[in-house]
Amino acid sequence: MIVLRQTPIPPSKDGRHIDLDASRTRPPLDERTGKDHIGNSIRSSRYTVWNFVPRQVFFQFSKLANAYFLLVSILQMIPGLSTTGTYTTIAPLLVFVAISMGKEGYDDYRRYKLDKVENNRETLVLHSFRPAHEVGSKDLGDKLKSIVPSKGQLKLSSKEISRDEDLQDSRHWMTLKWRDIKVGDIIKLRRDDPIPADVVLLHADGPNGIAYIETMALDGETNLKSKQAPPPLAKHCSSEEAIASCRAHVVVEDPNIDLYNFDGRVTVDGETLPLTTNEVIFRGSTLRNTTTAIGMVINTGEDCKIRMNANKNPRTKAPAIQFITNKIVIMLVVFVVILALFCTIAYQIWSNRTESKAWYLEGLHVNFAQIIIGFIILYNTLIPLSLYVSLEIIKVGQLVLMSDIEMYDPVSDTPMTCNTTTILENLGQVNYIFSDKTGTLTDNIMKFRKLSVAGYAWLHDFDLQEEAAKLEESREGDKNREAEKSEKKKGKGIMRYASKKKTPARPESVRKESAMSSSTVRPSLSIRRSGSINLWKSTARPSKAQPEMRTEDLLRFMQHKPHSVFTKKAKFFLLSLALCHTCLPEVQENGDIEFQAASPDELALVKAAQELGYLVIDRPAKSITLSYPGPGGPDSGEQLTETYDILDVIEFSSKRKRMSIVVRFPNGRICIFCKGADSAIMPRLKLAPIALQKKNEVSRRSSKRKSIEAEEALRRMSESSPRNSMNFNRPSMSSNRKSIGGRPSMASARLQPIRDELDTWLRRQESDVESVSDDSGAYSPRVSMARPSFGSGDRRFSTMSGVSGMERHVDDMIDEGLVLDDSAVFERCFQHIDDFASEGLRTLLYGYRFLDEQEYDGWKKVYLDATTSLVDRQNLIENAGELIEQGFDLAGATAIEDKLQKGVPETIDKLRRANIKIWMLTGDKRETAINIGHSARICKNYSTIVVLDHTTGEVETLMASTLLDINKGAIPHSVIVVDGQTLSEIDNNETLALLFFDLVILVDSVICCRASPSQKASLVKRVRTKVKKSLTLAIGDGANDIAMITDAHVGIGISGKEGLQAARIADYSIAQFRFLQRLLFVHGRWNYVRTARYILATFWKELLFYLLQALYQRWTGYTGTSLFESTSLTVFNTLFTSLAVILLGIFEQDLNASTLLAVPELYVSGQRNASFNFKVYIAWMFMATSESVIIYFLMFGLFGEAIFTRDDDLLAMGTLAFSAAVIFINTKLLLIEKHNKTIISFLGWLISVGGWFLWTLLLSLVFTPGKTYPLYAIKNGFIKGYGRNLLWWLVLILTLAALILLELGVSSVRKAFWPTDVDLFQELQKDPVVRGRFEEVLRREEGASPTAGSDLGNDNDPAAGSGSGTGAGPDEATRREGEIQELLNRPRVMHVHTHGKAPHTTHDDHVDVLKSPIDMHDGSSGNIAGAHQQQQFLTRRKVSLDPNIGLGSAGDARGSLDGVELNIRRGEGGR
Length: 1471
Known about the structure:
The termini are far apart. The protein is elongated. α22 packs parallel to α27 (822-838) and α38 (1075-1112) runs antiparallel to α44 (1210-1232). It is an alpha+beta fold. The strands form seven sheets. A ten-stranded mixed β-sheet has the order 18-17-16-27-26-25-24-23-22-21, sandwiched between helices. It has a nine-stranded mixed β-sheet with strand order 14-34-33-32-15-28-31-30-29, with helices on both faces. Strands 3-2-4-13-5-11 form a six-stranded antiparallel β-sheet. The protein has 52 helices and 36 strands.
């Protein structure tokens, strides 16, 4: 180990010294070692050529069975001790170990090949050598040095050696591979290039020499960082010639893991300037929004910051099940020794009593040492030699079956890949998941979703309209294709075609409008929408109604009433969206305008302004040019263009939490716009006291709602403890209504109560606590009015009153009196912000103030002094900002959705149901992390969120009080939020560290923000090592996740937008986070159960078979004589019983995939080691002992001692016991234990059992008699001997009948009196109705999407379907009233049908509804012919005649007509 240990490199005296010298031909030396700096190659493979063999030999023999067999094989090779040969153990052992090592080596070789892809990337390096005349002036020694290459130069690539070949070509950029880059090299980067090493920036083409860097793969932050070279250095490095002539001296810190700090200095022309993270770009970053940048390499390869954070010596991972196996092996070793000792003592007794008196045994006595070693060698097969090798075979089979099409992502064309087969079963036992945020949970796509202006909230869903239109377009195309296919198949072409022609197709113009791109100035209002269905729902609160009016209504109102107070405020707010940012527009070749933005949030805001009519068309250095609709509105086609001068920009910082821009309007007025967090803007408002008062009122209401939800959650928790959460013994809550199953037949009537009970339990598990919101007043147009938004598709105005009805609706949309009431506007705005935040949206508040020239001029001097100060510049700028950022008027608020990957919230809900704790570890900001925590449902509405912040000085007190509350059971759901700096403080204090880990293992989730990669890995390692029986899984997609992925028990890489670094190093890689469901709940659990069954079955069959040998010893004087002849004994495992355990280990599926996905609670069995523990092992071994006794004594009693037996020699008895064992082992494992019996099971049984009898037959024919012939008369023994004996066959059949009867009897008693959850669901899934219910859950989830385009026609949505439980507002009541009134006015004939199918009534499993088409007439034209184009489905509740059924709970998706009637009455009252 001393040879393999790497000695730490001592630190340098004062850092790493590098001269900026483009003409150098030899890289500088590392001061710490006196040698060249390490190369730029990286290695993520676990082994090298030198350490593979020693590390693998140690790993293979850490498996106790292998170590035990090594010891036995050494004893066996000692002459005179073994009765079973000399090399029968060591030879197969070495083969098995070599196979396992080869597999590990192959897995690591694949990682090595993926590393080569990274190391072979290319970049541009500046070569600038001195001209030939300058070289000639050198002395002879220098000339020789330049001609003869040094060792370092010989290592360079052939391209790089050419730097000496053409000295006349003094300056050029050469393409080099990343692995050939050296410290001191000058590299050129182009836009979107990844950074190949840590570099100090020399020059950038961006404005003011700024380069924009994306560090998402380093710290998870989505905002671009601005980097700028030190001004004197940038001035000397503006061109290749300037760089070649520049001489600068750079001193930087030694390589370390700190990503957030950097210390260095640069000396140029005698002037020394500091180097910080603002001037240095780290490997793993990407150059964005900058044409070119030039930098000098300061760290290479494993010295780079991101690689310093990686785990340099990743541990060799072993399956958790191996630890239990090792303990069982130890127990079996002890058992073998005890058994050998017992037989040895028994031999000594027999020797004294019998052997000493038998003259024919004289001189044959064996001494104690030899006989005990002989017995140990005889019984060593109780621990199967093939255990680990067959395990490798079944894991390869399991791996093949994991190639699941359901885990394939067609968008990125990425399947699930497995980089190791060693730990497949660990996937079924995970109880902690550590997830990255950016790129793993989120898509890093920001969408502007909501805004609040002048007291009114609006939903912006233009992007979802486009998606819905495309989806509908594709569905129509699919329907048409299916219809054409069915016509061809059925051959009824003429009539079918004629009937089909009656249905008018959607006009081409409508299709084009529907597919209209949202990048245009304003989407057409004619985009079809489903009237009663929201296109967007919150991922954090999916059951929450969306009462906001839509932004298309806002535009229509502004066009209809251009001079109203509200319109003026709304226009000014949209103007603030278009002006208050730092985005740069770029005109593409096709004429479209794209934006360069420092953050995706700003990009979303500017695009929203563009979609709402305010388009930024140009941004020179000091102005912004806008294009917006003229007085006639968007439909007039008139566009106005104005230019606003940018006077100053006060940048956003994490400390300020806001940014401001000072602009001069075209009319000469000066205005400052400010946007930021509500906590930063609210105190700076002109009416701050009123705002604070209203904010507190909203907070009180929110706290009250959360406390009600928390109490309800606690009540639920007390009702369903983890142990009885899956017992269906409670009285049915749905016995009076059919949940699943429809109309039961007589045969299934008895199953209906169980179905209903299961359905109720499933709904309870699937729904979350959601209180009825009492804040609908903050959204209604007027408190006294219940009018739907124009965009909701209310037909009354279009069918009855025409245009006048629409105008009245627009007139009533906004209450101008409320707009002028500052107090009401504040209250509603803060209520909106609170609701937006609870939905997981990122909120910003906008303020503005007009300045007079005198005030601005006075402030400008202060600000100019601050920006040009060389001392404490940042603080001076912030202080100057404080002077002017005061007295704002409220412009409005925005809410941005950080779009999650598809299925993330549903996956996290199911992981939590599976008793898996989820930690989110990110380098992003705290507020962003908490927002994503809400939207991904890591945090719930009623969660107690405890923020640990070292700056408050109350970390210890807060942790102690939270720990106390959790232990009391007073908190239903707790989330700890901690940042990297606080985590460092906790790590440095042993008391705090102990308290912290006592707390975090009790809470439901942990969010760690601003965490470095090494901190992520440290957290994972601590939980892995300190939390008893924990099995950790780390999942991420960036280079900053590699350390935690390698430290966790299971590492999963997302082959995502941050690259493939994590996918290369991980044990498994998937394309989407949602595939984790199937990977863990289905394949992980199956693999765990399969492996557990394989190990149990292997130990069981060995004990069953070899115990027969031990039982026989009583009748052979404990001399070690074998009951079985040696030839068959040798191949017992290989030929006759290996197939049974291998097929069980590869193909077993105790539960269907749909059951496991619909009921994630079943995953808990793997966490509890329910399939393989000492209790289960002892039970199997008890059965093995009992069955071995039955086989032996039935064989011996009925056959061996039968007085009329013709052939009762040792061979006949041994073969009888052997046959019974082989047949029963295969029967039990393939036909009784295996749940899903397929043709493969029966083929395996036939091959093994048929093979045994064929083997016996062949042996009887071809065996050549030898020395053992008198004892085992094999030749013709079966053909002419016991094979013709009817008693032999009869005893065999009786023995098998007794064994099977015992096995079935014990299994039946256990399932009847001590059933497990698996037993219950195995029975339940046999019912086709229950199985359909499980499959329905999957279909519903597969159809669901974080975007709401998938909610079209989804009648199962509780928010859309519940009449009372989800806080449906007055809009909803009036809408329903209109729909019902229209139904009543129509003829009493209802054609009930589903989408595109033949007319029939359907029974929806989730909500009992009837679906009927309603003609929607175009309000503007009244053209009835176009009504069919607008055909939609109205959802109505089934009428319940049971008076006991009321409105349902908040979480229940059911209801009755009572709920509709109540809403009708409320609607009438409103009117």
